From TrEMBL:
One of its GO terms (molecular function) is phosphorelay response regulator activity. Keywords: DNA-binding, Phosphoprotein, Two-component regulatory system. Residues 5-120 form the Response regulatory domain. The keyword DNA-binding applies. InterPro entries: CheY-like_superfamily, OmpR/PhoB-type_DNA-bd, Sig_transdc_resp-reg_C-effctor, Sig_transdc_resp-reg_receiver, WalR-like, WH-like_DNA-bd_sf. Residues 132-228 form the OmpR/PhoB-type domain. PANTHER family: PHOSPHATE REGULON TRANSCRIPTIONAL REGULATORY PROTEIN PHOB, REGULATOR OF RPOS. It comes from the Bacteria. Residues 132-228 bind DNA. One of its GO terms (cellular component) is cytosol. GO terms for biological process: regulation of DNA-templated transcription. The keyword Phosphoprotein applies. This is Response regulator transcription factor.
Length: 229
């Protein structure tokens, strides 16, 4: 399992689900959107790669890519265009917009997966380290390097486990982690840790981060997640 998160944007719902299923089988976290308008309402900075269809509604894949490249926060996100348009001019347009690859329909899933792996391998080493050193949601800021958390510029004191739980949830916004998942990732080799220990740490963490505590949501029977508005 890897930690790459991919967004598939295509107005063909069936195709989105097929790509999601196969990419998740490769270990990626995958979300889908059925229009550029829907995708632009999402928190795009959380994604390591976008798969964009070109021919969509009022905002085409080309137009969406152009918008993203003009925004400093999203300019460095790799883009692969997936489209039925395969003329030389369209391909050139895609690459001129900063696309990292261009796949024409119909395509094989093996080809898509191979190209996704190639783009992620190529771009992951060149993404700015600064983006990896800090993680932010609204006024909540995690300084990963300094192991500090602040809210609206005011540092708050967390224990090591509280910090690691918050980092895990914020790095994977919307993903539900079971108690077993959290134990494996935060407590790792430590033994004799009870499920109740996780609940206690979550309760303390919610209190310490104040207004942001409500975003740490309990999914009864499943676990916890950081759910954005």
């Amino acid at each position: 399992m890897n930690d790459y998160r991919i967004l598939v944007v295509d107005d063909e719902e069936d195709l989105c689900e097929i790509l999601k299923f196969n990419l998740e089988n490769e270990g990626y976290f995958v979300d889908t959107a059925n229009s550029a308008e829907e995708a632009l309402k999402m928190e795009l900075t959380r994604y390591d790669l976008l798969l964009l269809d070109v021919m969509m509604g009022e905002i085409s894949g080309f137009k969406m890519a152009n918008m993203l490249k003009k925004n400093k926060a999203t300019a460095s996100i790799p883009i692969i265009f997936i489209t039925a348009k395969d003329t030389e001019n369209d391909t050139v347009t895609g690459f001129n917009l900063g696309a990292d690859d261009y796949i024409s329909k119909p395509f094989s899933l093996r080809e898509v997966i191979a190209r996704v792996k190639a783009v992620l391998r190529r771009t992951s080493s060149t993404l700015g380290k600064e983006a990896q050193e800090q993680l932010q949601y609204k006024g909540l800021l995690i300084d990963i390097t300094k192991k500090k958390v602040s809210i609206n510029g005011i540092e708050i004191s967390l224990t090591k486990k509280e910090f690691e739980i918050l980092l895990l949830l914020l790095q994977n916004k919307g993903r539900v982690f079971s108690r077993e998942d959290i134990l494996a990732k935060v407590w790792q080799e430590e033994v004799y840790v009870l499920d109740r220990t996780i609940d206690v740490n979550i309760t303390r963490l919610r209190k310490k981060i104040g207004e942001y505590g409500k975003y740490i949501v309990t999914r009864l029977g499943y676990g916890y997640c950081f759910e954005c508005e």
